[in-house]
Amino acid sequence: MRTRGIRAVATSVLSLGCVALAVTTAGPASASSAAPAPAPVLHWSPPRPAGAGDIRQVSCPSKTFCAAIDTDGHALTFNGKTWSAPVTVDPYAGGLGSVSCPSASFCVATDDGYGEVTYYDGTTWSALQTADVRIGLGAVSCTSPAFCVALSNSTGFSAITYNGTSWSAPVVIDPDSNGLDAVSCASPSFCVAVDGSGQALTYDGTSWSAPSLIDPGHYLNGVSCPSTTFCATVDNAGNIIGYNGTTWSAPVDIDGSNQLAAVSCPTSSFCVSVDSARSAIQTPGAATGRSRAIDPSAPYLTAVSCATSRFCVAADYGGDFMIGR
After folding, report:
1. Number of other CB atoms surrounding residue 175 within 10 Å
2. Residue 24 phi/psi, 5° resolution?
3. What is the distance, to the nearest Å, from the Cα of residue 162 to the centroid of all Cα atoms in its chain?
4. What share of the chain is helix, strand, coil (3-state, %, to 5)?
5. How far is residue 151's CA from residue 137's CA, in Å, rounded to a whole number?
6. Which residues contact 1 (CB under 8 A, 6 or more apart)?
7. DSSP single-letter state for residue 184
8. How much is the pLDDT for 40?
9. Which helix (H) or strand (E) holds 99?
10. Residue 92 — very low, low, confident or very high, per pLDDT cuts 50/70/90?
11. Within its chain, how far is the Cα of 226 from the centroid?
């Protein structure tokens, strides 16, 4: 999906809220019932070149493996210390739209101009294969080699699913929106997609819900669902919105008027968002948190993926990456 500058590179699945769910019990507090300690504040490395073009998205299932795609049709992998040489997996310049890696031995990257995908098996990337004959795949999210969801904005704002062997026919899920922007799946029976009209949709393993307006007047750039009872999505006006499996919270301003490009939440109590002002915002779920400038010389940050609350990778539109530990 190529739209509106920073929005075109803001999805993540990967990869990979205001309402941090808590269980309360009657009686005096004890060590076993006490709330978990807050996550440590991440310390970010200086920006370093990944050796590729402008990074569009990154997906990190662990501290020792990430995959990234750039706007020049390259894919590259990270072993926790260094990036591999970029591999051309898409000859159509700027075509790669999204990447999702549930493990170090399986990734899917999509082409948002031609409806094709490439698979990574832990060693090599496959040749492009057609997944959507109606052309154009943007966001993708995979929970395992046997389940993925990809979104298309080419015709009718549709979704397709992967069963480990083949992709389903496209199903129109959001015909009246301003474009599907991101998707995140916690399991084969739970996914959330967000769009450019401030709406969210959920998937139950069989069908998609009708779009629900959760952020009037804004477009949603990224979504992250670490479980079926928590998701967070971010918008172009500095807000984060949390989902508890049933309802969405009101938008919470975590970044002034800056445009948030992506969000990654490895747990319901830890999220990192990145923005157009070259900052990372660490929040306890979808709540207010701490903002820190991590990339002062970049045009803007485009992607973030957190394997844990102690390991995140952020990337920018200048081809650099930063590690938060």
Report:
1. 9
2. -110, 145
3. 18
4. 0, 45, 50
5. 6
6. 8, 11, 97, 112, 136, 138, 139, 151, 153, 179, 180, 181
7. E
8. 82
9. strand 96-103
10. confident
11. 11
Phi then psi for 9, rounded to 5 degrees? -105, 5
Q: Please determine, looking at this structure, whether the domain spanning 5-16+42-324 carries the CATH number 2.130.10.10.
A: yes
Query: Where along the chain do its domains lie?
Result: 5-16+42-324
Cα–Cα distance, 141 to 151 (Å, whole number): 9
Sign, Cα dihedral of 213, 215, 217, 221: negative
pLDDT digits 0-9 by tens, 22-41: 322 233 333 334 455 677 89
Q: What is the pLDDT of residues 230-272, one digit of tens each?
A: 999 999 999 999 999 999 999 999 999 899 999 999 999 999 9
Name the residue with tokens 């984060």: 240
Q: How far is CA 215 from the centre of its chain?
A: 18
Phi and psi, residue 107, nearest 5°? -140, 155
Amino acid of residue 245: G
Taking the C-alpha atoms of residue 84 and residue 74, their distance in angstroms, rounded to an integer, is 11
Which of the residue ranges 16-30, 54-68, 148-162 would you say has the lowest mean pLDDT?
A: 16-30
The answer on pLDDT for 14 being more than 80 is: no
Residue found by looking up tokens 């629900």 in the block: 212
Assess contact for 139 and 122: CB atoms under 8 A: no
Structure-block tokens of residue 185: 């799946």
